[in-house]
Design a protein that fits this description.
The protein is built from ten helices and nine strands. By secondary structure, it is α/β, with parallel strands linked by helices. Helix 7 runs antiparallel to helix 8, helix 7 crosses helix 9 and helix 8 packs across helix 9.
Length: 251
């Protein structure tokens, strides 16, 4: 801060608090050991090798990023929902246009960043920020004419319906797994397990919801939402009837 000025002399006073604040930004963050629950992913049917791969990536000293690709009705959403249990920061790429993914990373410095619908990232600034964060654990942003750099280690886990819209430089930073759609029988088992283990739904009602949903769709999210509202089979029937009445392609 300039405190004195003449024709031949300028004097400045250093704002010690501001200097300390910015120096802290450049210090390497201390990483606490991540606790991985024993029951992580136990609601997901199969894919034991992918489950172990993700757990190994979480235990790694430095980030290893994972992308799950597949249509709706696969376990990729469940993988992301399970990772959120670790305190991960969950976003949907298609809804970050107002705030910006870059700003979210800058403010949160998430250790685990979970991105659904990765293929909907459109802003080049967001893309550039994500690439830098994944590669170097660094986020750069300009505010009020000042360039600020923040550091951290962040693991990125993402899902996308397809890879055709993703730039090669982004795909290269992920280890990519293609996951196929559940069969009706697999979905009933997965949805039932999820409702029982994560939402504490009565086992009989959980299976009833899973079976009824499977007649129209294989969406764990749909089963979850119905279970949040309905407490009896009669209420399940009423909710599904309303959804079917006003649905587009499915509820």
């Amino acid at each position: 801060i300039r405190v004195y000025e003449s024709n031949r002399y300028k004097a400045y006073k250093v704002n010690v608090d501001k200097v300390s604040e910015y120096l802290e930004r450049f210090e390497k963050p201390k990483m606490e050991k991540l606790e991985i629950p024993e029951d992580l992913f136990d609601v997901i049917e199969g894919f034991d090798d992918i489950k172990e791969f993700i757990k190994m990536s979480l235990r790694a000293k430095d980030p290893v990023h994972v992308l799950l690709v597949g249509p709706t009705g696969t376990s990729k959403s469940l993988f992301l929902m399970e990772l959120e249990r670790l305190g991960g920061y969950f976003i949907t790429a298609g809804t970050t246009t107002k705030v910006g993914l870059r700003d979210l990373i800058y403010e949160e410095l998430p250790r685990i960043l979970i991105i659904d619908e990765l293929d909907k990232i459109r802003d080049n600034r967001d893309l550039s920020a994500l690439l830098t964060w994944m590669d170097y654990g660094r986020i750069v942003i300009t505010k009020y004419g000042l360039r600020d750099v923040r550091h951290g280690k962040g693991w990125v886990f993402a899902a996308a319906n397809r890879t055709s819209n993703l730039p090669p430089e982004l795909l290269d930073r992920f280890r990519v797994f293609e996951i196929k759609r559940y069969s009706k029988e697999q979905f009933i088992k997965v949805a039932t397990n999820y409702l029982i283990k994560r939402l504490n739904v009565d086992p009989e009602l959980a299976r009833y919801i899973a079976v009824e949903v499977s007649k129209y769709d294989v969406s764990v999210r749909a089963a979850r939402d119905i279970a949040r509202m309905a407490r009896t089979k009669e209420e399940v029937k009423k909710v599904i009837s309303t959804l079917r009445k006003y649905r587009l392609k499915h509820f």
